[in-house]
From TrEMBL:
This is Ribokinase. GO terms for cellular component: cytoplasm. The gene is rbsK. Keywords: ATP-binding, Carbohydrate metabolism, Cytoplasm, Kinase, Magnesium, Metal-binding, Nucleotide-binding, Potassium, Transferase. It catalyses: D-ribose + ATP = D-ribose 5-phosphate + ADP + H(+). The lineage of its organism: Bacteria, Pseudomonadati, Pseudomonadota, Alphaproteobacteria, Rhodobacterales. It comes from Limimaricola pyoseonensis.
Length: 289
């Protein structure tokens, strides 16, 4: 089982002629609502990749449709808590040039009951995998528990916060960050990511692919991304990380899991949307990339 302690957000996407300036009032020309949040995206990616996924987190009173959608993708939501307040949500304005501005209300994602997470994780078995990101509470507590129980522990350091990464580092087997986050972390720690006390570090490089660093030997392996026309990079990193972890849980070696994740993320950037735009394993294998 892939255990994911992660955010669940309603993405409200407003199409606007331009991003509103301070003090400006603007009518949007389009509105769509979708499932998002790094946690939910990653759970959907892992499930679409064929993994068995149990999501840990919380939604508010308005979050029923999001749980239904997650379950529709095959994500087990039995341990997702239901609160009275609002669900996490994102107000996303996108202009004609696909530039965006995003405001996030964390809502229920930051009010997850620690005892419930602890009890849920106690059901995990050695050999299971645990992943979390920086959009919920309890990352460090849960990662420490998973590590102590013998699970493989992965962390996606986004949205980036140096203190959050520093706190979770001792419990990690795998750290995934993008290029900017890797630079920020190296600067905050005063050492290169090659020197991190984490066995495997993967740095994603957008259209350039990714680098996988085995810190024990310092070996750096590069994977190229296929050339695609990018229409929406929302959730590209989540798709990549979800597919990578699902692959590892299915017994793929790192190079094969990275290759599959790279193909999945490339397909995602060719489509609009977040969780709902993540390709299935069949699509990933069939695509001519
Ligand atoms: P994030 O979305 O977290 O900032 P990246 O931009 O590095 O992370 O993207 C994550 C992964 O998505 C990359 O490693 C790559 O595999 C894939 N990807 C992102 N942008 C593109 C692109 N324009 N073309 C092909 N693949 C892409």
């Amino acid at each position: 089982t892939l255990w994911n302690l992660g955010s669940i957000n309603a993405d409200h996407v407003y199409a606007v002629p331009h991003i509103p300036a301070p003090g400006e009032t603007l009518a949007a020309t389009g509105l769509s609502r979708g499932l998002g949040g790094k946690g939910a995206n990653m759970s959907v990616a892992m499930a679409r990749a064929g993994g068995r996924v149990a999501h840990l987190g919380a939604v508010g009173a308005d979050g029923g449709w999001m749980l239904e959608r997650l379950e529709g993708y095959g994500v087990d939501c039995a341990h997702v808590q239901r609160h009275d307040g609002p669900s996490g949500h994102a107000i996303i304005t996108v202009d004609a040039a696909a530039e965006n501005a995003i405001t996030i209300w964390p809502g229920a994602n930051r009010e997850i009951d620690p005892e419930a997470v602890k009890r849920a994780l106690e059901r995990a078995e050695r050999g299971d995998l645990f992943v979390t990101q920086n959009e919920t509470s309890l990352q460090v507590e849960a990662a420490a528990q998973a590590h102590a129980q013998g699970l493989t522990v992965a962390y996606a350091a986004a949205p980036f916060d140096a203190d959050a990464v520093r706190a979770v580092l001792p419990h990690l087997d795998l750290l995934v960050l993008n290029e900017i986050e890797a630079q920020q972390l190296a600067q905050a720690l005063g050492q290169p990511v090659e020197a991190l006390p984490v066995p495997n570090v993967v740095v994603t490089l957008g259209a350039k692919g990714c680098d996988w660093i085995e810190t024990a030997s310092g070996a750096r392996h590069h994977v190229d991304a296929p050339r695609v026309e990018a229409v929406d990079t929302t959730g590209a990193g989540d798709t990549f990380t979800g597919y990578l972890l699902a692959g590892l849980s299915q017994g793929l070696a790192m190079p094969e899991a990275l290759a599959r994740a790279t193909r999945a993320a490339a397909l995602k950037v060719g489509r609009h949307g977040a969780a709902d735009a993540i390709p299935t394993l069949e699509e990933v294998e069939r695509a001519a990339l």
